């Protein structure tokens, strides 16, 4: 079984805007509108200050055009978590150096009563 990985991403829109001397979200609105992207002030603000879970391809393309950048400049994927496949996981705790706590077991019944 293959390695399991959880992928995250860093959203760099604010940084790329600053590198292009765009400091306010309101400056981005008319540039988007000129490219047919009509977003409210609050939507643009969230796009710039937050990390979007999804973004329409046309909006992404418009941002790249406005900022004269590539998608890789705005969107930077990285591995959040790497784990071995569960099929290769050790079967017993002793296999990873953990000794079971034998003092906490209940005494066995002796059959006397």
Helix proportion range: 25-40%
Mean of the pLDDT scores? 84
For the report, how would you describe the main beta sheet? 2 strands, antiparallel
Query: What CATH first level of the domain at 4-82 would be assigned?
Result: Mainly Alpha
Report the sheet-strand fraction.
15-25%
Query: SSE string, helix = H, strand = E?
Result: EHHHHHE
Looking at the overall shape, the CATH architecture of the domain at 4-82 is Orthogonal Bundle
Which structural class fits the helix and strand makeup? alpha+beta
CATH topology annotation of the domain at 4-82: 434 Repressor (Amino-terminal Domain)
Total beta-strand segments? 2
What's the arrangement of strands in the largest beta sheet? 1-2
Low-confidence stretches: none
Number of helices: 5
- Whole-angstrom Rg: 26 Å
Shape call:
elongated
- The CA-CA distance between the termini, in Å, is 52 Å
Question: Explain this structure to me?
Answer:
The chain is of the alpha+beta class. The chain has a domain at 4-82: 434 Repressor (Amino-terminal Domain) (Orthogonal Bundle), CATH 1.10.260. It has helices at 13-19, 25-33, 41-49, 57-67, 71-74; strands at residues 4-11, 75-83. The protein has a two-stranded antiparallel sheet with strand order 1-2. The mean pLDDT is 84.
């Amino acid at each position: 079984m293959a390695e399991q990985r959880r992928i995250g991403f860093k959203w760099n829109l604010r940084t790329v805007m600053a590198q292009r001397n765009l400091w306010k979200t309101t400056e981005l609105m008319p540039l988007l509108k000129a490219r047919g992207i009509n977003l409210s002030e609050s939507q643009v603000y969230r796009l710039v200050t937050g990390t979007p879970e999804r973004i329409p391809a046309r909006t992404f393309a418009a941002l790249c055009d406005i900022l004269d950048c590539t998608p890789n400049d705005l969107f930077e994927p990285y591995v959040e978590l790497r784990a071995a496949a569960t099929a290769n996981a050790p079967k017993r705790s002793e296999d990873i150096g953990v000794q079971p706590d034998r003092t906490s077991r209940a005494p066995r019944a002796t059959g006397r009563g």
